[in-house]
Amino acid sequence: MELPEGIRLLDRYSILDRIGSGGMATIYRATDERLNRVVCVKLLRTTLVEGSGSTSGRAVYQATYSHFLKEALALSKLSHGNTLRIYDFGYLSLDEARAAAPKGTDEAALEALEQRADKRDASGAPFHVSEYLDGGNLESHVRRRKVISPEEALGILEGITGAVAEAHGYGIIHRDIKPSNILFARVSDQLVPKLADFGIAHSDVKKSPQAGLGPFDGNESVSTVALFSPRWAAPEQLCGSPEGPRTDVYALGLLTTFMLGGRIFFGDEDVRKTFNDRVRGDTLVNARLAHLGFSPEVSEVLRRSMAARPEERMATAPEFYQQLREALKVRPPSSIAPFPAMPPMPTMPPPPPVPEIPPIAGYPAMPSESHEAAMADGDGSGSQGGLRVADAVAERVVPYGHRRVRFIQVHERLDLSFVDQTGAPVRMRVTMLPGGSPKLNLKGLTCFVARRGQRPTPALTVDNDGAADLVSASREVLGELTWSFGQPAQGGRLFLVDGRHLLVPYSDAQQAIALMLTRGNDLVVMCRR
């Protein structure tokens, strides 16, 4: 089951594109149209049961469905600043289920989808909506940098252990703490670590007769489904023994060795061969710690955190963090994150006098004699040429030959509108998507959009220069939108506009995209700092 671009969930969230998938769910980027922000939609995969009568497939789906709901419930309880925030939860409606069905799905399967969507039962397709994080994950950061300094590692662990402690306070064990589940949010020019993916978290707590010990009386909980990541699992997960907060402490120890040592502690080609040694005793852990070259104090803290017997580990995540900080003899950085959010802008050689930027087929090259970078004052009314804009933070207008160039500062999106030949308004939305490489989502608000030679669709996501027709419901072409991502140059981004060079300096915009409609002479440059 795939969600097409432009489909709306809960009459609020508009799907932009698919950004990933795992064994349990598919992840999409979407726009929250009420609050004007980019969000993440996680949809439970149903491929194990759709169109099949497999009993085992249905059993696995029932288990993953249960864990999916537990993830949403777990996240809804948590408010720590270093935990991924959940915004909403829902099920695919009847129409959404039909739209998401694979092409060629027969009518019987479609009816089954509709029945599941109507009943909202355990065979349905639930999804939850959370904050969208575009700062990468800990695994990618460590692999790029090889190792992380002790100060930076503490900066990450300080927030993550706090998030884990809050979850434990609610009786929730994460059970899958690993580098790929530590995501980063961009805040100003810094990154903030966030604990994510509570998909196999467990909160069924086995109570002891003792009172007053909090949600983990006896420090044990029993899982009914053996789900774990083999390289990051504690011994009790491997052998099906009771789990508790110390299970997550073990994973925090493994996480620390990865940050400080630059490699996965149980990175064996066949990790299953390590299971027996990890369950039976501490010989394997001690031998591998000895080869990492940590100080005796640090090795001892890590040895305790990764003891085979849970009762020999630290009881809580904050206790582990405090002991590690004392052993490292350093303090975490004062900033909210250990890494700069963006790498320095590379120094580029000056562009040639006339860069060869081929025009878009069937459309003149976008407006270039000398480099121009100044933003002149203007009223920004946007009425000339019939093109109007909305959601602009600020606007300046520069006369440019027979055109006006409108530099418009935006948060992330811009609404454009013009009047067609019948006098009816045509409206569309352009959204600059977050991420390392430039991407643009084009969505028709009163029309459809269509690449040349392709069928109209509610929305398109693009990552290179191009053009699209704006199409009515009766498939009449109302106009054409052309866009250009420009080319990187020394000091800014370079666009070719009517044979002249237009340079948008990085001081004015870290991201810039040029837009032009066939109606009117306005060239719009979306700028985001």
From TrEMBL:
Give the species this sequence originates from: Labilithrix luteola
Q: Which UniProt keywords apply?
A: ATP-binding, Kinase, Nucleotide-binding, Transferase
Traced from the root, the source organism's taxonomic lineage reads: Bacteria, Pseudomonadati, Myxococcota, Polyangia, Polyangiales
Q: Which InterPro entries match?
A: Kinase-like_dom_sf (IPR011009), Prot_kinase_dom (IPR000719), Ser/Thr_kinase_AS (IPR008271)
Q: What is the protein named?
A: Protein kinase
Q: Which Gene3D superfamilies match?
A: Phosphorylase Kinase, domain 1, Transferase(Phosphotransferase) domain 1
| Coiled-coil regions listed | none
Cell inner membrane is among the record's keywords: no
Q: Which domain of life is it from?
A: Bacteria
